[in-house]
């Protein structure tokens, strides 16, 4: 991944809306250090697919909007990653594993009162995934 790609992904994160304009409830930890990625990968039982960049979205635990904002941020990151020809995935289980680890909290420099809401690993995909038909996945009722 290039620094230009990382900058564009960070810009996509920065464009995320915030519930009630509360921009102080969410932070991004961009992890590109190979050693730190390996440690986090171990703590999350291999959940991050060895991706070269981890976008760790941390939020205040007492905010009613923070987790929703984090999901919006993840979607922004994933859309931008696709635009850049990169692969990404929304990881919740790995985020939960990091929250159970004091070591992970220290490694990520998480502030008191913050937890990891989601991790979005980003990298060059090993293969181009098939695009399933998504025209009828959810029920839509016109009223």
UniProtKB/TrEMBL annotation:
Needed co-factor(s): FMN
Annotated TM spans: none
UniProt superkingdom: Bacteria
Domain Nitroreductase: 29-123
Keyword Disulfide bond set for record: no
Keyword terms: Flavoprotein, FMN, Oxidoreductase
Keyword Protein biosynthesis on entry: no
SUPFAM superfamilies per the UniProt record, alphabetical: FMN-dependent nitroreductase-like (SSF55469)
Similarity annotation: Belongs to the nitroreductase family.
PANTHER family reported for this sequence: NAD(P)H NITROREDUCTASE YDGI-RELATED, NITROREDUCTASE
Protein name (Swiss-Prot/TrEMBL): Nitroreductase domain-containing protein
């Amino acid at each position: 991944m290039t620094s230009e790609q990382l900058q564009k992904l960070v810009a996509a994160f920065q464009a995320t809306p915030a519930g009630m304009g509360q921009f102080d409830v969410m932070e991004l930890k961009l992890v590109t250090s190979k050693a730190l990625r390996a440690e986090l990968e171990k703590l999350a039982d291999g959940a991050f697919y060895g991706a070269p960049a981890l976008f760790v979205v941390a939020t205040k635990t007492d905010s009613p909007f923070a987790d929703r904002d984090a999901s919006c941020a993840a979607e922004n990151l994933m859309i931008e990653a696709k635009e850049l020809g990169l692969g990404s995935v929304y990881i919740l289980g790995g985020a939960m594993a990091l929250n159970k680890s004091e070591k992970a909290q220290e490694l990520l420099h998480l502030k008191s009162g913050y937890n990891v809401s989601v991790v979005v690993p980003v990298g060059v995909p090993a293969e181009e995934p098939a695009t399933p038909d998504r025209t009828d996945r959810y029920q839509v009722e016109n009223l």
